[in-house]
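For concreteness, we quote verbatim a single protein encoded this way:
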Amino acid sequence: MSHSTLQSEVNKLNAEGQTLQAVEVITSEIKVNPENPELFLQRAQNLLKLEKFKEASSDAARALALGAGAEAHLVHGKALFNLGEYVESLETFNKGKAKAGSDLGGFDQFGQWTVWCEERIKKLGISDISSEAAKKVSGNTMEKPEVAPNTMPVPKIKHDWYQTESHVIITILVKNLKKEDVKIDFTDKTVSVSAPLPSGSEYSLELDMCHPINPSGSSFRVVPSKIEVKLKKADGIRWTALEGDGATPSVKSNPTASTDGKIASYPSSSTKKHDWNKLEAEVKKEEEEEKLEGDAALNQLFQKIYGQGSDETRRAMNKSFMESGGTVLSTNWKEVAGQKVEVKPPDGMEYKQWDQ
C-alpha cells in the first residue's frame, strides 16, 4: 500500500472515530515494511489517542531508532509524560527541539510541554535528573532569572473557551491590539497565537487541541477588548476539554438548551464558572465607551440614535437618507413624512445622478 493510500485510509478511520481500526491497518503495513520509521510514528500517534501510553512510547522510540525526525520526539515525550516519567519526557522534548532547530519558526509545540515537565519535576522534588536537563530546569524554573532593567515583564493574560455544534470559540482577554499585529497559525491539531503587547513585551499562546479542527474554516477577529479565535470543528462532536488527546465522546451534538429551560452550560478549561451574559454585557459596555474619532465616531453616533430611537425616528432616518441620496439624515418624522426630502449636497459641491 502506498503512503498516500495508507494515510487516506487512516484519516478516514480517524474521522469516523475508529482509531483502533486505524492502528490495525498500520500494524498490517508494518509487517510488510518493518524498517519504516513513519509507520511506527503514525501508529504511536494513534496509540496516544487510545491512551495506550506505554505502547505509544515504545513505537515512538522505535521510530527514533530508525531515524525519524523531531515529531517522533514530541510523540515520545507526550507518552512518557502521561506515564509519569517526567525527567525522560523533558529530555526527549529538549532533543526534539534541538533536532527541529530553525524549522520550528515562530510555532514551537515543544515549549508548553517542556514547561509542564519542569513544573512537575519541581513540584515533586525529583533529584534523579541528567545534568543537561537539570541545567535547563534550573535556568528556567528553579532559579529566578536575571531580568534586564529595560525589559518589561509579560503580563498574565487570561483566555477561556466555549463551543457550539460546529465551532469552538476561544476568547483571549487582551486589549487595544491591531489585527495586522496579531499572528495566528492553525493546523489540524494546534493553534498558535502571538502578538506584541502595548507594554513592549510579546504575548504567545500555544494550544494542542483536544480534537481535530478544520484550519481553512477557522478564523479570528480583533476588537478593542479581546481577540476571538473561532475554530471550525472537523467533526460535529462535543468537546469535553480544549487541549489534550481526547477520546471521541459518545454524544454527537451539543445541547442548545436544557429540558428545564435553563441555559446550557458548556465545558470550559477554567475551574471557575463564568456568567457569559455578564461577560458579554461588560464587553459591549467597553466597546460603547471606546473613544472613536472622525467618521467612526459619527457613524457610532448615528447607529446609537437609530438603535435607541422610536419607530418614527427610524422611519424618518431611512426616508430622509434614501430620498436625499445620502445627503440628509433627519430624525423628525413629522417634518419629512408629507413631502419628498430634497438633495442637499455639501457647500461647493454639485449633486449628479450616477449615469450623468
Notes: Residues 259 and 265 are 12 Å apart (CA to CA).
